[in-house]
Structure formats: structure tokens, C-alpha cells
Amino acid sequence: MSDGPTADKPREACGVAGARGPTGRHADLVRELLLALQHRGQETAGIAVGTGDSLVAQHGAGLVAETLADISALPSGPLALGHVRYSTDGARGSLAGAQPIVLPGRALAVAHNGTLVNSRPGPRTPGPGHGPGATDSEHLAHLLADETAATGGDLHAALHTVLPRLEGAYALVLSDGRELIGVRDPHGFRPLALGLLGDTWLLASETAAITAVGGDVVRELEPGEVLAIGARGTRSSRLAAPDAKTAACLFEYVYFARPDSELSGRSVYRSRYRAGQALADYAPPPPRRGAKPPVVVATPETARVAADGYAQRAGLSTVQGLSRSGATGRSFIERDQRSREALVRRKLSPVPAAVAGRQVVLVDDSLVRGTTMRTVAGLLRRAGAAEIHLRIASPPYRWPCFYGIDTGDPAELLAARLPVSAIAGQLDCDTVAFLPLDRLIAATGGDPGNYCTACLTGRYPTAVPASPVSLPLPAVRPDSYSTLAFPGRAE
Hints:
The chain is of the alpha+beta class. Helices cover 25% and strands 24% of the residues. A seven-stranded antiparallel beta sheet has the order 4-3-5-2-11-10-12. Strands 6-7-8-9-13-14 form a six-stranded antiparallel beta sheet, covered by helices on one side. Strands 19-18-22-23-25 form a five-stranded parallel beta sheet, sandwiched between helices. The protein is elongated and about 75 Å long.
């Protein structure tokens, strides 16, 4: 998420939303949904309105509150859909690739969360959007438009023809100007929820967005479901994918989703709290040295819930050892390491009164690149921390994602380059420990076989475009997540 130092984090590709009901200012409602999904994308934002006869869109680069501050030019209509984006394909920091995609002269608007791994399976005719510079989402939009035209304007039929030919991740909110349609891929990689606000139907990437606008969550779409919302209500169907196995992204629970969301009926907050408790069981705080007991410090803001769980189980106090300032900017945007570190120092300030002379258990939800954690550890040491023991509430992140998460260059993944035993020294920490995968899944709940864990295990649910890792992985056992043999730990 964007409210902490994010160069150490993977980035969710985007968030999608939609509203369908009696004619009105649905663009305003979708804007509120996008504000609640802002953490899922901060590079571009857009809204498209369906009037029944046409689709009209407005896009901008930046945050929703800024780039969509004035949407008065958008018309009223029975439906609207929206999108917030981080780029995983296409130019970053510009309107290139902004969504929803509205094709000129074609009755189609598409908002896509995820990444397709084979988005070019031979369109009917070459044309705009089919070229090498187009994003996977643009390819998808043109494939659907071509098929819709070939089937006499039936978008619902086009979805059932085109989508089974594609592999990868997609949660879609799309429209032909009359119906609002939500779709999840047959693996269910990315989430999509259905809600109701009065007589208006809502679609959103997270349940928290629906409740944030005063709506009631009805349910989550099932993997492979196509849900069409029209003037006469809703109708549901399933994509033809008999061999698809559910593979919901585990990192939604670890990091991406808001803590007040639910995924597959399970609370993200409870999952993170239990992961923190499990981490304390697996990697307890260090033996007390000195007059002051150790304290737990969360890396703001996404690790706070896991840190609370860790502190509760360990019998320690959580202190605000890092204070987040109101500085703007996002560390992953900076092009060089020195600039990223400077931005982290502007955004985070250590609190000497909370950490001076103490053993600090620094809790984070994940560690991917490690590019800012060393800066964070340095801040705490300069504030007087006697020791820093980093505890990560998820396993080492060693493989790139092909399903809608931007992990950047695979060669930058810290745990792919270094054995865990070397990471503490790299980050200027006294010790580092990661929560094992089986304990994370136990904390999250549900069927262990229904999660995508590719970034943690290298086991991909679908074929991927190329060799996922171009460098040799460290020779570590799958359960070697800790740098220490912790006394009293149950194995």
C-alpha cells in the first residue's frame, strides 16, 4: 500500500469498481468507491459512464481526489465503472494504459485488474490495440469488441467465447452501455465483490469499498463467474474451464487488501492478527538484556495488525517507534536508490523516546526487495535502538508474479539473491525471521490448496511466459525461514 515506504513491496496492479441502478449520478458513486480502493493503484484513475446509447469516459494521472476532483462533465446514466491503476504493462507515470478502456466507435468499456499471460491468441483482424505496444488489457478489449461485433452485439456471448481462450488473472468490470458485467477468472486470482446500496448494484475489488459508501455486501463473485446486471436485475453464468483450480492470491491477505475487507468470507484483519501471533510463536522476541524490556515496532502502516498480534502473543508492548509524516510521494517511483532512501527519511521519522536503549522487534508484513528496510533500520539505530530484530509475517518472496502484481526485476528480489542467513547483515538488523508458509496459511484459514503461492514457492497455477527466475536460487531448505534456532519453538 502507498502509505508507507513501498520500495520493499510488490504493487497491486489496480482496483475496479462499478454501479448500476436507476438513472442518476453514478459517476459520483463510483468515484467514492475508487477513493476507498486508492491503495490498489495511484498512477492513473478513470470513470466511464454508460447512458444506454453511449459510453463517456474521463481519465487522469494521479490520485483520485486530484485527477477526478471535477467529474461534472460526465453525464448521468444507468451505470458507471471505474479503475485505479499501477502499471505492470505500459508507460508509468502517464495516461498510457489508463482505464476504463473505451474503444472509439465500439460499444464497450473495460476495467481490468490482473495480468493475462497469453492476451494475443490471434484476433480476427489486425487493428488498433492488437499491436506490440498495446497492453494486455487493450488486447482483451479489442478481442471482446471483435467477437461482440461478430456475434451481433452480444457482449455476454463474446465473454464466453473469448475468455476461455485466455490464461492469467482477470477481475473485470465492463459494460456495453446498458449492462454492467463483473467477471472473475476461473482461478479466482483477484477478488471481486457484489454489493447493494438501496436499489443500486455495486461491484468493487474489495468489500471494504462497498461498506465505505454505505452499501451492503451481498457476496463475492465465484471463480469463473460472469455476473450481468441490467434493467431487469442480475443473471449469472460460468465460463467453460473444467480443469481450472482455485488459486486466490495469498498476498491479498498478507498485504494488498484493506484490513477491514473480507476475502472468501474471511476477515483480512483476523488473518493478519493471527499471522502476527503465529510469528511470535515461531520466532519469539530475543531474551531480555538490560533494564528495559523489548518493544514491538510496526512498519507503518500495513504491518500494524500483524505487529499487534505479535505483541499480544509475546507479552510485549507495541510502541510508535516510527512516526509517519505527511510527506507526499511514493518511494517506488524514484529512479535511483539514493532518491528512494531520501523519500523514506522524509516520510518516516524515528521516535527516540520509544526505542532508545531498547531491543526493538521490528514487524513487517513482507520483504520483497529490501531496498528501504535498511534505511528504516538505520533510522531506528540512530534513534538509540540497542538491537533490531526484524520479524516478517510471511515467507521469503523469491519468485516474480505473472498475475497482476508488479515485483519489478526478478533479480531485485532479495531472498532470491541471498540466503536468509545473509539478509540480516544486508539490512543492518541483528536477526531476521520469516513466518513459514504452512503457518501463514493456517492463520489465513481455508483450503491450503486454493491459494496461489507462486511468489513464495515458484509453483505457478498456469503456464507462464518464460523461465520465472533467471538466476540460481540460494540453496536453502523450504522451511529455512529463520536465521536463528529459537529456544522453545515448536517445530
